[in-house]
C-alpha cells in the first residue's frame, strides 16, 4: 500500500517535469517553423538552446521524482503530456480538435483516474 501523502510531493515534481517538457517541445516546434540562413543558426539559436536546457532540467526533475515515488507511477503521470500537447496545439498552433482526439484524451484521463483509485 502506498502512502499518498508521502508520494504526493514527488508526483507533483514529476508532473512539473512533464509540463515543462511539453513547453520545451512547443519551443522546439516554434523554432522549427522559422527560416534560418544557415544550419548553424537553426540549431544554435537561443530558443533551441533554452528548450534543450529545459529538457535537461526535466531529466533532473524526473530523477528527483523517482526517489520518492514508485516507478509504476511515472508512466501514468507522463501520459499527462498528451493533454498538455493537445492544449498547446489548439491554443498556440491553432490545430483542430476533432472527436477522435477528444475521445483519446478522455480515455487518457480515465486511465489516470482508474490508476489513482486502484
TrEMBL record:
Which keywords fit this entry according to its UniProt record? Membrane, Transmembrane, Transmembrane helix
Q: What InterPro entries does UniProt report for this protein, alphabetically?
A: EmrE-like
Instruction: Tell me the superkingdom of the source.
Output: Bacteria
Regions crossing the membrane: 6-26, 47-66, 72-93, 102-117
Name the record gives this protein? Multidrug ABC transporter
Amino acid at each position: 500500500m502506498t502512502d499518498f501523502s508521502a508520494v504526493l510531493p514527488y508526483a507533483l515534481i514529476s508532473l512539473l517535469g512533464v509540463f515543462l517538457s511539453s513547453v520545451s517541445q512547443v519551443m522546439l516546434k516554434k523554432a522549427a517553423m522559422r527560416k534560418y540562413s544557415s544550419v548553424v543558426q537553426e540549431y544554435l539559436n537561443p530558443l533551441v538552446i533554452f528548450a534543450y536546457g529545459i529538457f535537461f532540467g526535466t531529466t533532473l526533475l524526473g530523477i528527483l521524482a523517482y526517489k520518492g515515488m514508485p516507478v509504476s507511477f511515472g508512466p501514468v503521470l507522463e501520459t499527462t503530456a498528451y493533454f498538455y500537447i493537445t492544449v498547446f496545439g489548439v491554443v498556440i498552433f491553432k490545430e483542430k480538435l476533432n472527436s477522435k482526439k477528444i475521445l483519446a484524451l478522455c480515455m487518457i484521463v480515465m486511465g489516470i483516474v482508474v490508476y489513482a483509485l486502484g
